[in-house]
Write a structure and sequence with these properties.
RNaseH-like_sf; alpha+beta; four-stranded antiparallel sheet; 2 helices; 105 residues; 4 strands
Length: 105
C-alpha cells in the first residue's frame, strides 16, 4: 500500500475539512503591501554587493550592482578586487558622475 506524500498544507487542510476532521477557519489576511517602486527613472537606485568569486590564490572578487528602480537600467556593474566600503562608494560615485545623482539611493 502506498502512502501519499503531502507537501501543500492548503491541500491537506481542505481534505481534513471535507472529511469533517477539522473545523473550517476564517482566514485573516493581515499583509499590507506598500508599493515602494518609484514612478519615474532617477528617483531611486538599488545597490547590491553579491557573493564573490574565489580565485586559485584565495583572493575573492565581489560583483557590485546598481539598478534604477523604475527603468531597471543598470547603473553600476563592477567587480571589486577589495570589497571594502570605500570601493563600493567609489563605484557609486562613478555611476553618479556618468548618469547623474538619483533622488534617493
Amino acid at each position: 500500500m502506498s502512502v501519499a506524500r503531502w507537501t501543500d498544507t492548503g491541500t491537506v487542510h481542505r481534505v481534513l475539512v471535507r472529511n469533517g476532521l477539522v473545523n473550517r477557519q476564517v482566514q485573516v489576511h493581515r499583509r499590507v503591501y506598500e508599493r515602494w517602486q518609484r514612478e519615474a527613472p532617477m528617483q531611486l537606485w538599488q545597490t547590491d554587493l553579491m557573493g564573490g568569486v574565489f580565485l586559485a590564490d584565495g583572493r575573492e572578487y565581489k560583483p557590485v550592482t546598481g539598478t534604477d528602480d523604475d527603468s531597471r537600467f543598470i547603473v553600476i556593474a563592477s567587480v571589486l578586487v577589495q570589497p571594502t566600503g570605500r570601493a563600493v562608494c567609489q563605484a557609486f560615485i562613478e555611476a553618479m558622475r556618468r548618469f547623474g545623482a538619483p533622488r534617493r539611493y
